[in-house]
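call fold target=VWFA domain-containing protein
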Amino acid sequence: MENVERERERERERERERERACVRKEQVSCNWQSGKPLITETVQHEGSTNFKKQLDFVKNVTKQFTVGRNDTQFGVVTFATTYHNEFYLNQYTTQSRLQYGLNKITYSHPGATYTHSALKFVRENAFLSTHGGRPDAEKVVIVLTDGQSSNPSLTRQEATLLHQSGTEVIAVGIGSTVTSSELNAIATDTKHAFTVKDFDLLNSIQTQLTDAACVKPLPHCKSKKTDIVFAVDSSSSISSTEYSQQMAFIKNLVRNFDVSPTEAQISVVSFASSVYDEFNLKRYNTKTSVLGAISRISKHSGITNTDQALSHIANSSFTSAMGGRPDAEHLVVVLTDGESTNPTKTAREADRLHKMGVKVVAIGVGSGAHKDELNAIASDSLHVFQVGGFDALNTIMKDLEAATCDINACKSNKADIVFLLDSSASEGQSHFTEQLQFVENFTSTFDIGPDAVQVGLATFATSPKSHFWLSSYPNKTDLLNEISNVPYTPGSTFTDLGLELAKQQSFTPMHGARGGSVPQILIVLTDGQSTDPPATVKMAESLHRAGIQVIAIGIGSGVRTTELAVIASDKDHVFTAANFSALKSIENELTLATCKGLKPSKECGDKPADIVFVLDSSSSEGSSNFHKELNFVSDFVKQFQVDKQHVMFGLATFASYGRSQFYFSTYHDQQSVLNAINRTRYIGGTTRTDQGLQQAIYQFRSYHGARNNVDKVAIVLTDGQSQSPSKTNAKARELKNLGVKVISVGIGSTVSQNELKQIASDPQHVFNVTNFDALKAIEYDIRHAACGVAPPPTIAPECGSSITDIVFLLDSSGSEGRTNFNKQLDFVKKFAGQFEIGPKNVQVGVATFATHVTDSIKLNQYSDRQSLLSAVGGVHYDGGLTYTEDALKYARTTAFLPSHGGRQAATKLVVVLTDGQSYNHATTIKEANLLKSQPGMKVISVGIGSSVSQTELKAIASDDKHVYSVANFDALQKLNSEITFTSCQTCGFVQTADIIFALDSSGSEGPINFQKQLDFVERFVTDLPVGPHNVQFSVVTFGGSVQNEFYLNQYSQKRPILNAVQSAHNIGGLTQTGDALNYIRNNNILPANGARSNSTQFVIVLTDGSSTNATSTKLESDKLKQMGITLMAIGIGSGVNSNELNTIASDPNHVFTTPNFDALQKIREDVKKAACEGVNTTAAPPTTTPIPTTTTPLPTTTTTPLPTTTTTEAPPSPSTTPTPTTMTTTEGEIYVTDAPTTLPTAPPTTTEGEIYVTDSPTTTTEQVGVIIG
């Protein structure tokens, strides 16, 4: 055992040695081809002693390299008034000979500092083939100097020419007379410029200089056959300096690749008003020539036509004529500092690239880059990067290398990773084995051990089972062997039990979990939906609260993305694979997600934040409890990346007086903050909470480091009541008026709940725990309250193509100002841009209101999206008073008239945006009520800023769920998806329906296929809200006889219905479809059994064959239709009779077929859509003319568009009808749950901002030349 452990340690050491930046003692460092002239200075004031110190430094540096004709070659040039070539690259081709040559150099040419002459000589001579230069070798020049050059302008000029030749230049300044500006001009970029105070300190930068000179291609990038196109923003918003920084960043990234016709090829496309093909993939076939070409690119100017650049790349860049290779991976890296001129086209062109199989990386620089657009451009969110400015680009180099080169950038980081694998019956042995292979492949990319990554594995089916714990196998060989031996144990899909096992056992210290700062990651793989979805949601939430990061992987078509999103920590941790064989295709994405999980959160929610803690340090606490507060704060801080681009912290305490322990400007890294927290002392005294709040106010002053355009959060912890409640209330108001989100935490039984509410921003930001030990339990809730922005729900597929008339009423009063008014217009454009615009789809109108109402855009004025968006951009700002009532009257009397484009069959929606209270409150309320009384009218109100009246917003809106508030105009975009969803709610959310399923359980089905019918019904029920005021369900089964499983009014909640569905009887026998329809007519649709007169009623028949008595079936279906019942017919398999399906259904649009029972789930959305459409339509009157039939079999799937000609307005739901609740998942999709008895009283406010993503910098260089001065 001791020998095994010793060998493992040796292997770890060998791996660490391989990864050191070129520093190896046994002639294996930098053993790729490179040429490095060293240029040293011999000016008069330097003296022979200092010159010798330069030479000693050069000798030490060169000893780190493998020297040879096929490895690294060195040359040396000295300079003063003149330059002198000491030796060329090919003169000394071994390490010993090189040292011999360096020892021969003497200090013999003192004089002035003609740096430019030395640079020119090196450029024109040093790399010639006759002097040892090799076309495929990296070229690096290292310049050492102790003063400013005699001719700075010529020096800069020669340095630029050297850069443009593709040569990497490192500049070393020695002493106080050098100028940093000149060093930076000589060097390739600032990361390649070094300074030391005197010659004795040269050796202190030896490792840094070697790293800079010796960054070789990453192993996975090195020989990878990749065609890479950089799309570079060259618009007018980017300065020349920023553009140069952008180019330097691209060159650093290029150095990670070996460039040749059989390895990586590079192209650059720049864009502004036009697109510029700087050079194509086949133009340059060496790295040096590519780097030189990038250095020669000139900046352009103009607007940001990102869409045109992406279009050019899709149409041209990867063609064979431009050098594209069909067998190479295709990669596009887009850099931009702002939103594109045409976001819709940009997203469309990016989607083209995605569909072509091109991997797209999007990098946003500065606050002008829009995260939503970057997400649309990139292949996925893992390939989106953002930085605060061009000078910060190198901070994302490591993550970008991982994304572009498919490498595991965190393989040696500590982490506890547990795999939870679905072992249910739907998998089968072969598929389960493919899961295990996937786990093996993934695990093999990490270093395994107690000081690296630990891996555990559990499975779940009917019950869960842990196969090995985190601490079971501390070496990779044994771990991989054990993974392959995990047995397959089929059963049901109790995902919740698997999650519970992971939470309760897998991540415990007893089983190897290390806790503390070691990340805990659970990776769940499943091929289906959980047997108990509510329990799964509950257990997933429990894992999230415990700080365990959860990645969810769905395999195949049987999974439900909404459930995956609930299981996962967030949308970036959800993955899907088309089948088990496709698991390999997501290995790299999973590695990226896991690596991101090994780091603290960068932002608070979705943007940077300034967070101050205000801690009670009074005598009632005691020292022990005060330190529990400090531990709570430390654990909170550990969740974030602390620096100027992300989250910053401050700390204040209070007792008899308040004191700021440190400000945002004091510490800029996590460890320093943690150290300061640990040093904070307990004070003791009275409870002057107001003094603590005053310190928080000071904290948010700019001179203490508070930043503009970031979230501001104060978290107040106290165990008692303040000495002066009135002063505390006043200070809390003052703090909140600064735009600070305030969270109050009461500890113990002596706190005042009223005071906590007065301190906090709202009741949702008030928390209580019984004692100080319980603080840990609310850490997740506090973090969510401080930073959590619930993801906006996504739009149902049917929304956006249905007939809807939307009128925006925009406040154009004097309180807005033109700038803020334009932000309203941007919101409208983004909202409208989601829809298909036209007379058969969505129409949008716009009116503005101030002292008067202006009819800016009529509903029928524009019939295509682009024309509409252009017109919205041209709407004029008026100024004046806020006559909201006139705008509401206009909407009621004019906006929806046929002459304005109003359509009788369309859903009518009014969206009111305002930043203040109306001029006449009473008249506004009256007009709002009249507007809402219109049939089919829905009104949404949006309040912007602190001057709005929540009472008035509620009075304007249809109900509380249609009221929204944001902190300012910049935050409007946050509401886009939420309001879109509210605008497009379908019957499943707001109307009533009685739905009866008639399920074929004849002998031809068999128990397995019958079960698949039940699963179909279960999923259908799960999608819709259940209750006496929403949707009711009933199920009848039929075979040789008819069995009522349950009536419409038998169950008023979803869980009992789902249980009853799964308990349905499989009868067997003949196919008595007619008897089933007769039974439904005489029993299930009776009022006594739950049928409602004000509800739309449906019968959905599922069958796999022809009925035993076709005449009876037709007769009974006709009778149901005559009663106004909508019938749908679903035929399964090849044994169905298409004529009979048409006979049963209300019309051909309500006929659906699938090739087999497995395909049932694929038509669920189509069936639901037909049912939802039916809620708003009147059934066609019975006719003596038979519905047309055909002798041609129906296609296997039918998705015929729903009719729109027989629609009539559905009566508005009574105001007392409870609305169903929706739970947004991390993916933004919606789980619909049963209707609540109460509604929230106020929506949350949101703020807008941008995301900055940074990471530790890396330095990359390939070839070196040294100039010593």
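return ok
The first helix runs from residue 2 to 19. Confidence is low (pLDDT under 50) at residues 11-33, 789-801, 985-990, 1176-1269.
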